[in-house]
Amino acid sequence: MAAQVELFLQTLIAGFLLGGLYALIGLGMALIMGVMRIINLAHGDLMMVAMYLAYWLFTLLGVDPYISVFVVVPLLFLFGCALQKFLITPVMKVESILPHNQVILTVGMAMVLSNLATVFFTGNYRSTPVNYASNAWYLTDYWKNAPIELSLSMPWSLSFLCAFIITVALWFFLTKTDTGKSIRATAQDVDAATLMGVNTNRMRMLTFGIGSALVACAGCLFIPIYYLYPALGKQFTNIGFVITVLGGMGSTEGAIIGGMILGIFESMTATYVGMGWAPLGRFAIFVAALVFVPGGVASLIRRKRLGR
Amino acid sequence: MRHFTFVATVISIFILAICTTQVLAQEARFAIPLPLTGTNAKFGEIEKKSYEIAMEEINAAGGIKGRKIALEFEDSQGKPEISRSIAEKLIDVKKQPVIFGEYSSSSSKAIAAVAEERKVPYLVVTGATDDITQQNYKYVFRMNPTNAYYAVGLLSLFKEVVKPKSIAILYESSDFGTSGAEDMAKQSEKFGMKVLVKEQYEKGAVDFRPILSKVKAARPDVIYMVSYVMDAALLMRQIKELRIDANLYAGGAAGFAIPEFIQNAKEASELVMTATLWSPQIKYPGAVEYAEKYKKRHGDYPSYHGAEAYSALFVMKDVLTRAKAWAPDDIRVAMKATSMMTAFGPIKFEDKEGYTNQNFMDTLVMQVIKGKHETIWPQKYASAKYVYPIPKWRERN
Questions:
Q1: Model confidence pLDDT, tens digit, residues B72-112
Q2: Is the separation of the CB atoms in B204 and B234 below 8 Å?
Q3: Is B266 within 8 Å of chain A by CB?
Q4: B231: domain CATH number?
Q5: pTM of this prediction?
Q6: In this structure, what DSSP letter does residue B373 have?
Q7: Domain that holds residue B183
C-alpha cells in the first residue's frame, strides 16, 4: 500500500515539475499565436539556439546555465525581433495563393536553424555536466520515520521556480503595463487597436521577441537537466503546439494550464500504462482537445466566468 | 592562345592519368562503404580514421605481398539502398575481388545480399543484427559478435558473482534496444531470474522518474538498461536521485560504454557495469598501442567500432597474403581458414548454432571505478578487480 502511494505521489511530483517547464515552452508559442494568428513552427529551434548559447557560455566561460539566462534571454529577444522585422513582416505583405505563408516561413526558419547548427556544431550530443545535476531533497531527511520516501530534484525544482517567476512577471507585464496592454489589444482586434493608435507592427515585433525570449528561458532551464543536439527543436515544437491547442489557441492562461495538464498526463501514462505510450498519449490528448473542447482550456475558463 | 592552353591542359591530364594508372598497378586499391554523412556519421568517422591508421601501419611494414594499400571511402549516408548500389559498383565496375566495411546492421545486410548473389566475399565489420549470418550465406563473413552474444560476459558475471533473482529491463524503442532487451529477457528466464519490469521508452524522453518509480516499487536485484549516449546518463542520474537501491546497475553496451557517459552522469555513473566488446585497456596484442595512437592523433579514445575497423584491415591483409590468387573464390577459401589474433580479439569464422561464417568471441564487462571505465570480466582480461556488493546511494557521498 505504502509503495503504491509512494509511486503515485512521486509520479505526481514528476508530472508537476515537467508541466511547469512545458508551460514555459507553450507560453511563448501561445503568445505569438494570439497576437500574430500564426503557429510559430520554429519555436523549438529557437529553444535549440538558446541552448547552444547557454552551452557555449558554460563550456568556454564556465557560466552556470541558470546565470546564463541573463545573457541568453536578451540575445534571443533581439534575435526574435529581428526575425519578425526582416523576415515575417515582409512576407505578411506578399499576396499569395497560400493564406498562411508566414507559417510556411517559420517551417523554413526551423530547417535553416537546425541545419546551421549541424554545420557549425556537428550532430554530436552535448550537455552541461553541472555538479548539482542529481542533487535532491528527500522526505526521510526531514521526517525520520516517514512511511514513504519521496524525492524532489534540486535542478528540476529550481527550473520550475524560475518558470513560475517568469510566468508571473509576464502576467504583470501583459496586464499592468502600457506596452503589455497594447499587445493584448493587438491580439484581440488588430483594426481596433490600430484605430486606437497602437503601432501594431511594433507590437508584433515585440511579441515575437518576447515569445523567443520565453522559449530561450525554457532552453536555459532545460539544459542542466537534459542534453542538446541540433535536431532537438522539432520535439519541443510539437510539445508547444499541443499545449497551444490544448490551452486554446493563443490564450496565455490556457497555455499554462495546458502545460501542467500535459506534464501530469504524460507522467501518469508513463507510470500506469507504459513509457513507450507517452508520445502517443500526447497526440491522443491533442486530438481529443480539438474534437471535444475546440476552444481549449481558455474556452472553459471563459464559460465559467460568463456563468454559462 | 586560348586554344593552346586548352590543348595543353588536355595533354597534361592525359599524361597525369597514365602516370597514375601506372602507379596504381603496384597498389592494392580498396573502396570501403561507410556512413560519412547522416545520423551515423560519427561512427563512420571513427572507423575511417581507424582504417587509415591500419593502412599506414601495414604500408610501413611493406604492404600486402609487396603491394601498398590505397583506401578510398564511399559515403553510404547510412542508407541501405545507397550501400547496395556502392557494393554493385565495386563488384561490377571496379571488379574489386572482396568487400569489407559498413557500419549499421541494415546497410551491412543490404551489401551481404549483393555479395552473395555475385559470389564475392564480404567481411561484415560492425553490423550486429543476428540474422545477417543466419541465412546460410557462403560468401558473407562477420567479425562482430551477434547481438544475442553481447551480454554473454555480463551473464557469466551474474552467475558467478551477483546471483540475482530478479531483473528490471529498460530499453529504447529502436531495433538495437528492442533486440537487446528481448535477448536479455530470454536469457534471464533461462537463468531463473524473474523479469519484474520490462519497459520501453521513446528516444529523447526528458523525464524517466515515472518508470523509475515503478522500478523502485518492484525492487529488482538487477536493473539492466539498453540505451544510447545521453539517455544512459539521464537514467543513472535519476536513479541516483530517486535512490533506487538495486544490487547492480548494468548497461547493454552502446551509451554506457563510452567516455561521455561518465562525463555526463558524473558521480551517478560510479560502479555502473556495462557489457562491451572491447575496451582501450584490453590486453589483446596491439590494442593499447592502437588506442593510444588514435587518442594522440584525434584527441579521444576510439569506441569498439574503431578497433573493429582497425583490425578488419589486418584480417584482410592476412587473408590476401594467404589467398592463392586475388580472385573472389580463392579469397573466400582463405577467409574461411582465418584464425588469427587482432587488436579487437581472436578472429575465426565458424559455422555453429545456426550461424554461418560467424566469429564468436568473449564479450567483456566494464565497470566505472573511481570515474574510469575498467575491464572487470572475464577475469583473465581484467584491468581491475570488480567492486561488489555496491553501497547504497544513501551511504555514498
A1: 999 998 889 999 999 999 999 999 999 999 998 889 999 99
A2: no
A3: yes
A4: 3.40.50.2300
A5: 0.80
A6: E
A7: 151-276+363-395
